[in-house]
Design a protein that fits this description.
LapA family protein, 9% strand, single chain, cell membrane, transmembrane helix, flat, LapA_dom, mainly alpha, 89 residues, two-stranded antiparallel sheet
């Protein structure tokens, strides 16, 4: 089952890399990002997409262990609550 999950993840990442490459070739015009009063330098759309995808992948890789810790804490608390409810007298 683990190899199937790894294959699926690899296919999805490969698809996104191909889509970014295709978009970067078709849209070589430089763009600049504007946020409130800040404006970035002009960079190609493909480079911007690749940078955004990389930041997203790294961010999710860093956040997944935190979600696992929070989920295990909640399941432990729920198990303790269930044990208190079913007390034999």
């Amino acid at each position: 089952m683990k190899t199937l999950a790894n294959l699926l993840i690899s296919i999805i990442v490969a698809f996104w890399v191909m889509a970014i490459a295709l978009l970067s070739v078709q849209n070589a015009a430089p763009v600049s990002l504007k946020f409130l009063t800040f404006e970035s330098i002009q960079i190609p759309v493909g480079l911007l997409l690749a940078f955004s995808a990389g930041v997203g992948i790294i961010g999710m890789a860093l956040l997944q262990p935190l979600w696992g810790v929070a989920g295990s804490r909640q399941s432990r608390e729920q198990l303790e609550d269930d044990n208190e409810f079913f007390v034999d007298e």
